[in-house]
Amino acid sequence: MTENTANQYRRRTYVKVSPIQKTQLINLVFQEQWKIKKAAKFLYVKYASAKSIVLKYRKYSIQKKMPTLPEIKRCHYKPLRNGKHNYKIICLRGGIFQNTIKNFSLKQ
């Protein structure tokens, strides 16, 4: 057997990432806004594994938490007239609730 064929049959070692490391990685990337590469290096996780974890979290967790509104209600505006105006802004970062801004103003 030549050296090339021997290298093909050699198996790559896989290391499982613990659930604690996964949650730490997600918190660093989405809450602390670290780069994936920096967070992976900090947690001693391979970059490819970290990237897969983040992409999977984005696909399954964040997108499922987002409300599915009809297209006509997603982003719209309404001209303000005299009277009381109510609006509420909800801020999400990484699919996790951050804060709410409410305004009840009277236009004069």
From TrEMBL:
Which named protein is this?
A: Uncharacterized protein
Q: Which source organism does the UniProt entry give?
A: Paramecium sonneborni
Taxonomic lineage: Eukaryota, Sar, Alveolata, Ciliophora, Intramacronucleata
